[in-house]
Amino acid sequence: MYNKIELEENATHTGPKGVINDWRRFKLENDSRANLNRKMSVQEYELLKEEDEGCLKKYRRQCMEEMHNKLSFGPKFEGVHDLDSGEAFLEVIEKEHHSTVVVVHIYKIGIKGCEQLNSCLDCLATEYPTVKFCRIDAVASGAAERFSDEYLPTLLVYKAGELLGNFLSCTQHLSEEFFATDVEAFLNSYGLLPEKELPKLEDEEENDVE
């Protein structure tokens, strides 16, 4: 029920018609206020809903990161490692952590596809920090006779000292113009790469803000 005093204070007309007009104006003003308050409530609800969804998304992401960290074993690496001798080549294969996948690119300057493959491995090294990507010149490896120009570029994949993949002239499995995603898909087709690292939570939050 509307407040009688408030109605009387807002009354500006006298007589039956005046009272009716005042009542209509009073009711219209209060209905407008009620509608405004209802709209604000909906906006506040939507805002709270978005905040709740954001908190839930953040919580789920933290749980995924914790689970991923528990399941991630072994060291992490940065960039592609250049090997300068056959001894260094053998050492990285035999002494690396037993859970680490080691990908070695045997190349030779001037051989088609070698430079492009090096660039692709640079990209993959940032996306797969638990994989140790290496490269070595065929001559420096001391096994140039085994890796002649016709077999280059060659990709060798090891884990726990065991050879898992031996891809001579590996670019024959790729298109003439290939990219990191093509090399990634090729290695994944043999199940040689682990799951990718999860993007950082901070990066996702920044994307949500944008």
From TrEMBL:
GO biological process: regulation of G protein-coupled receptor signaling pathway; visual perception
GO cellular component: cytosol; nucleus; photoreceptor inner segment; photoreceptor outer segment
Keyword terms, alphabetized: Phosphoprotein, Sensory transduction, Vision
Gene3D superfamilies (UniProt xref): Glutaredoxin (3.40.30.10), Phosducin, domain 2 (1.10.168.10)
Record's keyword annotation contains Phosphoprotein: yes
Cross-referenced Pfam families: Phosducin
Residue ranges of every copy of the Phosducin domain listed in the record: 30-203
InterPro entries reported for this sequence: Phosducin, Phosducin-like_reg, Phosducin_N_dom_sf, Phosducin_thioredoxin-like_dom, Thioredoxin-like_sf
Domain of life: Eukaryota
Family classification: Belongs to the phosducin family.
The protein's name in its UniProt record: Phosducin domain-containing protein
Species of provenance: Oryzias javanicus
